[in-house]
Amino acid sequence: MDSDDLFSCLERHLRTKDDIEMMLLKGHLILEQALNKILLCYIENEEELSKLNLMFSKKLDLLIALSGKGYGSDQEISQLREINRIRNKLAHQLDFDGFHSDLKRWACQVVGYTPKSINRKQTYRNTLMRAFYLLAGMLSGMAKGRMAALRGERSDNPFTQPLSPAGKE
Questions:
Q1: With contact defined as beta carbons under 8 Å apart, do 31 and 80 qualify?
Q2: Checking phi first, is residue 112 left (phi over 0); if not, alpha (psi -120 to 50) or beta?
Q3: Number of domains within the chain
Q4: ∠ at Cα 108 (137, 79), nearest 5°?
Q5: How many CB atoms lie within 10 A of CB 85?
Q6: Is residue 169 part of a domain?
Q7: Which site from 1, 54, 102, 120 is most exposed, i.e. has the minimal number of CB atoms within 10 Å?
Q8: Do 10 and 132 meet the contact criterion of CB atoms below 8 Å apart?
Q9: What pLDDT, on a 0 to 100 scale, did the predictor assign at position 59?
């Protein structure tokens, strides 16, 4: 998923939703697809990645293990872990009523500010959308950076260069 596809996916699946719970679930899924895109820079076969049957948190752990500290700041990684925690609580705890306060806190942390009144539904929704856009953009940029690095590594590697005719170097 390139960045144009990613942002059109965000537009299609988040901007059209009024239900905050659905925005959370769809936004989390879109972030996971962006995470998959980065992992496919390391695991070149999508089928192989799928066979691993990894959950979001394990995909994040795998990315960190494969790349070291090369992807995202500790703050961005913790923001991805936090949205996963909130999503998991919503999906797996029938009586998880406090997700709105957690989600508002998360969104404000990602966007870097707290609106004057996040209690208005439209402000809450807009802040949540901005947070998903920012993290999706960060993941998309990381995937592009990794792809560019791979192209650079391949072009610098003499074993990946076409062979020159005998006697001509």
A1: yes
A2: left
A3: 1
A4: 55
A5: 14
A6: no
A7: 120
A8: yes
A9: 94
d(CA 135, CA 72): 10
Instruction: Report residue 101 as tokens.
Output: 């306060």
Percentage of residues in the chain with pLDDT exceeding 90?
36
Across 135-167, b (16+ Cβ under 10 Å) vs e yields: bbebbbebbeebeeeeeeeeeeeeeeeeeeeee
Q: Given this model, what pLDDT does residue 106 score? A: 95
In a domain, 160, yes or no: no
Asked if residue 1 has pLDDT above 70, the reply is: no
User: Looking at the domain assignment, is residue 156 inside a domain?
Assistant: no
Whole-number average pLDDT of the chain: 82
163 in a structural domain: no
pLDDT, one tens digit per residue, over 53-111 is 999 999 999 988 887 765 567 888 999 999 999 999 888 887 777 788 899 999 999 99
Residue range of the domain that includes 145: 3-150
Max Cα-Cα span within the chain: 75
Instruction: Report percent pLDDT > 70 for the chain.
Output: 85
